[in-house]
Every structure is written in C-alpha cells, then in structure tokens.
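Students often ask why we bother encoding 3D structure as a string. The short answer is that it lets us treat folding as translation between two languages. Here is a chain of 114 residues written in the first language.
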Amino acid sequence: MGSVTITVDSTESFKQRVKAAFSGKRQEQRISFESFELLWKVLAPNRMALVQTLAGAGPVTLREAARRVGRDVRAVHSDVHLLLRAGVLRKDDEGRIEFPYTGVHVDFMLKAAA
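And here it is in the second language, the structure alphabet:
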C-alpha cells in the first residue's frame, strides 16, 4: 500500500485535512498524534520494532508476529492491542493483524520550551 507519514498534529490541522478530504482533495496516508509525548508512548522502541517487522508482510497471527520479533506472545499481545487502539495496526476479517504499509516516514517539529 505504499508508505504512511506519522505526525504530531494539532486538532485544528487535523480538522482542516478532514475538511479538505470531504471536499474531494486527495490526502496522503497519515497517522496523527496530538502530542510528541503520546507519539513516543505509543511508538516505544519495542512497538516500533513490531511495526517495522510487520511493514509489508501482510496479515499475520499474533503468534507469528511474536515469533518474527523474537518476543513472548503475552508481551506482544499488549503492544498489538495498544497499536490497534491507536490506529497504527489493523485487524482483518480473520482476526489477523497487519501494518498495511511498506514504509514509514515520521515527521514532527520540536520547538524550544517557552
């Protein structure tokens, strides 16, 4: 399915993209987080390794995902469910999980503290 951009966006920016999409403007594939802290919480190193391993792999079982990343199924189970709730991973009709993109671009800006 190509690549997806993971961003930190304000609610207003998100609303503008939705409005543009409803007016027929094509939007790039994007997964947005409302804060830098939330992005890092959801995409912690173990979870990002899982995303990277599943990129372009097609739907797999939870057990297969755990085998591919070399981790215990129980630990991967909690990571998978957090990533599903965040909209990073998807589940197919058979209950298998997938990250339907072949690449990830992470885009965010850090500004000086006020």
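Translate back mentally: The chain has five helices and five strands. Keep this in mind for the problem set.
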